[in-house]
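Sequence, please.
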């Protein structure tokens, strides 16, 4: 092959590589058209496990800050039944979400099992409809596709069941990140 000629294999490789680079950040469902992240205007919660704002803040906004080293944590007496409510700027067509369950703070790689993690969650929409999902016990991103797309201004995520913490001193439910897609 000379410098002037490009093989069809090279062209195919470049095309496939370009597609892979574009879709990789969105996970497998991006190939199914689930690529548009819906911005969250506000997030509220049933409780806030923050005890020391400087050392271990756990405000609801930390579930949408894009940093997996932070998290929202419920208070210790608000585990099963705790919730996060996400508000969008207006009506949004929600087709799925991505959740990073639990929490692994920076420099504490073995911390994941020290707090409760969400096991079963229910997404509740403006019209009262709901879908329930079982999460894996991992801190890796989990992509969840809804059975049907929903037009809604809010999504409330309710914790229905938890993976138990190994430590019992002050366990709380922790979620590092939640993103919505449409």
């Amino acid at each position: 092959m000379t410098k002037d000629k490009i093989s069809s294999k090279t062209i195919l490789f470049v095309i496939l590589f370009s597609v892979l680079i574009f879709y990789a950040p969105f996970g497998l469902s991006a190939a199914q058209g689930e690529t548009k992240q819906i911005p969250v205007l506000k997030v509220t919660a049933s409780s806030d496990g923050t005890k020391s704002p400087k050392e271990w803040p756990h405000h609801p906004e930390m579930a949408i800050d894009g940093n997996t080293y932070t998290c929202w944590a419920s208070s210790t007496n608000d585990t099963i039944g705790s919730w996060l409510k996400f508000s969008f700027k207006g009506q949004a067509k929600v087709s799925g979400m991505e959740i990073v369950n639990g929490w692994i703070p920076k420099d504490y790689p073995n911390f994941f099992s020290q707090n409760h993690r969400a096991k079963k969650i229910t997404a509740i929409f403006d019209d009262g409809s709901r879908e329930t999902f079982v999460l894996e016990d991992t801190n890796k991103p989990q992509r969840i596709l809804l059975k049907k797309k929903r037009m809604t201004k809010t999504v409330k995520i309710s914790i229905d069941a938890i993976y138990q913490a190994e430590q019992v001193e002050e366990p709380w439910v922790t979620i590092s990140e939640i993103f919505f897609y449409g």
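Confidence is low (pLDDT under 50) at residues 16-32.
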